[in-house]
């Protein structure tokens, strides 16, 4: 699919990847094309599925979420119904930033943000441990979270 993209499309995707709030006017000026062309290109990129939406990047610390962790989770069983139930249950838990279904040693990896160590303990013991199909968890603290967008 990348063959369908020309250099201007890639420039638009890069700009939006790093700041989804840019206006058509700003994008057009940066890549030196007409605003109407920018609008048409963004519309086509959306229709073809390259652009799926815009996401706000929130400073977790401003919300009092001072601790970020990666939770590695192994399940007891590998049944589709268990995996789907786990995904549904965990995606609704407050504090979950990202959920990854994995191949390898762990079945899932959760990226979680919490207020403090007490809230982390409660998240693990009171929320995760209530799911009977969890075999084990391992917690790793995130020291720094930096979003890097080097895909194009």
UniProtKB/TrEMBL annotation:
InterPro entries: AsnC-type_HTH_dom (IPR000485), Dimeric_a/b-barrel (IPR011008), Tscrpt_reg_AsnC-like (IPR019888), Tscrpt_reg_AsnC/Lrp_C (IPR019887), WH-like_DNA-bd_sf (IPR036388), WH_DNA-bd_sf (IPR036390). Residues 5-66 form the HTH asnC-type domain. GO terms for biological process: response to amino acid. One of its GO terms (molecular function) is sequence-specific DNA binding. Pfam families: AsnC_trans_reg, HTH_24. Keywords: DNA-binding, Transcription, Transcription regulation. The keyword Chaperone does not apply. Gene3D superfamilies: 3.30.70.920, Winged helix-like DNA-binding domain superfamily/Winged helix DNA-binding domain. It comes from the Bacteria. Signal peptide: none annotated. GO terms for cellular component: cytosol. Transmembrane segments: none annotated. This is Lrp/AsnC family transcriptional regulator.
């Amino acid at each position: 699919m990348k063959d369908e993209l020309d250099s201007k499309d890639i420039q638009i995707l890069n700009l939006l990847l790093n700041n989804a709030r840019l206006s058509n006017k700003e994008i057009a000026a940066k890549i030196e094309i007409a605003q109407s062309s920018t609008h048409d290109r963004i519309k086509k990129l959306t229709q073809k599925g390259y652009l799926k939406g815009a996401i706000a990047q929130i400073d977790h610390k401003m919300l009092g979420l001072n601790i970020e962790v990666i939770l590695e989770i192994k399940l007891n069983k590998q049944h589709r119904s268990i995996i789907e139930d786990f995904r549904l249950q965990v995606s609704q838990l407050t504090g979950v930033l990202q959920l990854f279904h994995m191949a390898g040693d762990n079945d899932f990896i959760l990226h979680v943000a919490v207020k403090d160590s007490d809230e982390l303990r409660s998240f693990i013991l009171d929320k995760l441990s209530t799911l009977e199909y969890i075999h084990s968890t391992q917690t790793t603290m995130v020291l720094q979270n930096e979003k890097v967008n080097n895909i194009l």
